[in-house]
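# step 3/5: fold
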Amino acid sequence: MTGRLSRLLGLGLRAGRVVVGVTGVRAGLQRGAVRCVVLAADASMRTRDKVERLARARGVPVVRGPVADELGAGLGRPAVQAVGVADGALARGVVSIGGPE
């Protein structure tokens, strides 16, 4: 699951359809531009509270991803706690791989 998820998110990042980081994901959710959220398995309670609550309130699926180090490494970045997917088709693929929580 992790490899497929990382590859999909990497494709989305290169296409400019993925937002990386808690601040960007929250802003995307507030604008209605995020179709699904991937949270690191080890995301802090603060991050979960800030991102997950907003996503659920907006009806956006939340997928539990790998730990932050692995999630970031899959995107060529340092540790990442949250990733937002802006593309609808890509979001459906991510949810089908990771399954919504």
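# step 4/5: annotate
The first strand starts at residue 18 and ends at 20.
# step 5/5: archive (pending)
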